[in-house]
Amino acid sequence: MIINTEIQVLTKIKKARGGSLFFVEDFLRFGNYKTISKALERLVEKEEISRVARGIYARLEKDPILGPVKPGTEAIAKAIAKRDKARIVPTGALALNTFGLSTQVPMNVVYLTDGAARKINVGKRTIVFKKTSPKNLAAIGEISSLAIQALKELGKDNVTESQKRIILKYLKKEDSYRLEHDTKLAPEWIRVIMREALTNMTKHGK
Predict the structure, then answer these.
(1) Quick one: CA torsion of 143, 148, 149, 152, rounded to 10 degrees?
(2) Whole-angstrom Cα distance, residue 83 to residue 204?
(3) Are 149 and 118 in a shared domain?
(4) Left, alpha or beta for 31 (phi > 0: left; psi -120 to 50: alpha)?
């Protein structure tokens, strides 16, 4: 029975593109939780798939030079959020890193969420989901949401002109409707910066 389940699981995995992430729940039509878990562990032993964290598996992407490439923490966090039907927003330190405003790569990658609070160990790093109020997750633009968190992390009186220019450069890539929506959710001092980005969009006809 386990061999048949293993074949069904592997067949589904092989249809997915490299880098795809999988959970036990993705295969429950082929058997119960325990049976699927065993099938996945056997596939890990055979090196058909890789275990990236507890209960999370991947069909690794293969780079011609580097060989198998493990999925990053962002991809894992997004996959967990999708599975749990939860919203997530990177916190300030992670947002700063994404914008290149900090060279520090945080060992604890922290996301705000309306899903369950938890920690996921991924190698030497940890993905932390912190429960927050719906208000902090109301932004609909990926870039504008990051900008709000990055600016909050920097603080009102600490944002330099250079940092502001970098954030404005990223904000111009945001969809104008999403940016306008998210501007209303930000503290007033952050709204001033976001309105500047909106004004620049209008000038350039975006």
Answers:
(1) 150
(2) 39
(3) no
(4) left
Q: Of 96, 116, 114, 117, whose CA–CA distance to 106 is shortest?
A: 96
Expressed as residue numbers, the domain containing 154 is 139-206
User: What does the alpha-carbon distance between residue 14 and residue 204 come to, in Å, rounded to a whole number?
Assistant: 45
**50 and 105 within one domain:** no
The one-letter amino acid at 118 = R
pLDDT in tens, 178-199: 999 999 999 999 999 999 999 8
* Spatial distance between the Cα atoms of 114 and 138, rounded to a whole number of angstroms: 11
Residues 30 and 79 in one domain: no
Question: Given 137, 158, 193, which residue is the final one in a domain?
Answer: 137
pLDDT in tens, 114-150: 999 999 999 888 999 999 988 889 999 999 999 999 9
pTM: 0.81
Among residues 39, 69, 99, the one where a domain terminates is 69
Q: What are the C-alpha distances in Å from 76 to residues 19, 166, 172?
A: 10, 27, 27
Residue 197: count of CB within 10 angstroms of its CB:
24
- Do 116 and 96 form a contact (C-beta atoms < 8 A)? no
Best CA proximity match to 102, nearest among 111, 93, 112: 93
Summarize the confidence of residues 11-22 as an average pLDDT: 90
In the chain, the number of structural domains is: 3
Residue by residue, DSSP assigns 143-178 as HHHHHHHHHHHH-TTT--HHHHHHHHHHHTTS-HHH
